[in-house]
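stuck on this fold:
=====
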Amino acid sequence: MSPKILIVDDESHIRLLLEQTLEELEDQGVELLTAANGREALEVIKTEAPQLVFLDVMMPHLNGFDVCSTVKHELNIQDIYIIMLTAKGQEFDKQKGAGAGADLYMTKPFDPDEVLEKSIQILGL
């Protein structure tokens, strides 16, 4: 089964940027999936079971904290690595993210090299 990465952000240019950053992983059999909001993200997570999720915090319908908490605590899916993406670097957000079950926290604007490196590391490529 090929590894899957889900990119969740309500801003299309951020989704595109992340897709472009990660597209070279497609050569290694990684499938890139996207979702534009929290509700969509949960559907994709339930149906596609990605190994890695880049999850925006501020989104309509369901925010990133709610999505993360639902995945980790309600659906009890522990083998998904969730990286929260946020424009805010405040400690409060980091604690809230950790409480929701986030595995890692990255602030926007993010470094594409770091995103790629992290993905390779997490997926064991």
About this structure: The radius of gyration is 13 Å.
